[in-house]
Amino acid sequence: MTIKIDYITPIKNxxxxxxxxxxxxxxxxxxxxxxxxxxxxxxxENNILTIGSTQKNNLFFKIKTNFEFIEVNQFxxxxxxxxxxxxxxxxxxxxxx
Length: 97
Known about the structure:
This protein is an alpha+beta fold. The chain is 38% helix and 19% strand.
C-alpha cells in the first residue's frame, strides 16, 4: 500500500512566488525552450527542493522544505497539476507555448 503524501500544500507559497518570477522572466525574454510548462522535480538535498526545466539545465529555482525524501512519481503528478492550474490562472498565454 502506497501512502499518498501532500507535497504541494506545505510549499505552495514558495512555489507561487518562484513560479511568478519564472513566468515573468519568460514573458519578458523567454524562448519556447524556456517555458515554465517544462518545469519539474530535479533534486532534493538537505531539505532543499530544486525545481527546474527539463529542457534547459540552467533554469531552476530552489524551495526550502521539511522533506527528507520525495516519492518522485507522486511529486511529479502533484506538481504537474499545480503547475497547470497556476499557469492557466495567472499566465494563460504561456499554456499556448
